[in-house]
Design a protein that fits this description.
47 residues, mainly alpha
């Protein structure tokens, strides 16, 4: 189940820019960013 998360307009704009720069759909951009963030957090937890 996917959560219904409210984000700021500024953050949404940054994600849209990220998607456009990399020729991704908005869904692909969210997935890529979430996975990268989780990988970073998991790496920090292991240190």
């Amino acid at each position: 189940m996917r959560p219904n998360v409210e984000i700021t307009h500024t953050l949404q704009g940054r994600i849209k820019d990220f998607a456009e720069e990399r020729d991704l759909t908005l869904s692909e951009a969210y997935t890529e960013l979430l996975e990268a963030g989780l990988d970073t957090l998991e790496t920090q937890d292991q240190q």
